[in-house]
Write a structure and sequence with these properties.
about 240 residues, alpha/beta, Rossmann fold, SIR2/SIRT2 'Small Domain', 2 domains, 3-stranded antiparallel beta sheet, 9 helices, binds nicotinamide-adenine-dinucleotide
Length: about 240
């Protein structure tokens, strides 16, 4: 049996044996739904590094660029559907095979696919608040460039910008689950972004990485290189036998 096939079988065996499994996802989980990750060479992110826009400095000092960037992301997401790998994770939750998904993604695709136990560690692009007074606003108020109707402050999506704290409840719930998990799947993340990148190291359980490329400098119990959606579908077929 080729090593790749053996590794996939091993991951499925561990999944079926585990009493508590947590999934930790990043932008690579969504590329097969045509949402570029930070490392993508395509689209308008070729001209602009999102890391220079997804900051509190951009929000306060370069709002026009910040607004254009997030408006484009919100518009692009309207067309997007979760791929089959998302549906596999949702089914695994229903079957009691996974307990929690902690995601760095802000696109809402886990919930759209039907997963309920989801913690959004970097917030959500689908809700809007005033950066000054915290009042909620409609997405269309933001995309139309309006200011807060109460205080005149800048509207923003509820994503965690570089320089901001992670939502503490989401962080604590994910951390607690990962600490007590027997198995953690780490899917589609470069593990570049602190502090979320610390989570896979917080477990005493096994860690299985599913990523297009292996992570230099890390040791995990198993790394399966390939596309998240394709591999999850493959694993699901084996898990059903
Ligand atoms: P990242 O772009 O730094 O890394 C993505 C990783 O996924 C890379 O290692 C890449 O090789 C891998 N990858 C790409 N396509 C894959 C596929 N089909 N299957 C498996 N692996 C694949 O993303 P990150 O680690 O999540 O961190 C960047 C930050 O970007 C996060 O804070 C996140 O909030 C934000 N972000 C979110 C979205 C989203 O919500 N969809 C999109 C872009 C960035």
């Amino acid at each position: 049996m080729p090593k790749h096939v053996q590794d996939i079988q091993k991951a499925v065996d561990w999944l079926l044996q585990s009493q508590k499994t947590v999934v930790f996802t990043g932008a690579g989980m969504s590329t097969e739904s045509n949402i570029p990750d930070f490392r993508s060479k395509s689209g308008w992110w070729k001209q602009i590094d999102p890391r220079t826009v997804a900051t509190t400095e951009a929000l306060t000092e370069n709002y026009q660029l910040f607004h254009a960037f997030y408006t484009a992301r919100i518009q692009a997401l309207k067309e997007v559907l979760p791929h089959e790998g998302y549906h596999v994770l949702a089914r695994w939750e229903k079957r009691g095979l996974i307990d929690l998904i902690g995601t760095q993604n802000v696109d809402g695709l886990h919930r759209k696919a039907g997963s309920d136990a989801v913690e959004e560690l970097h917030g959500s692009i689908h809700t809007i608040t005033c950066h000054r007074c915290g009042k909620k606003a409609a997405t269309s108020d933001f995309t139309h460039g309006q200011a807060c109707d109460t205080c005149g402050g800048k509207l923003r999506p509820n994503v965690v910008l570089f320089g901001e704290m992670l939502p503490q409840e989401a962080w604590q719930r994910t951390l607690k689950a990962i600490k007590t998990a027997q198995l953690v799947f780490v899917i589609g993340t470069s593990l570049d972004v602190y502090p979320a990148n610390q989570l896979p190291m917080m477990t005493d359980g096994r860690v299985v990485v599913i990523n297009k490329e292996a992570h230099a400098g890390y040791t995990f119990d198993l790394t399966i290189e390939g596309k998240a959606g394709e591999l999850l579908v493959h694993m699901d077929a084996i898990a059903q036998k």
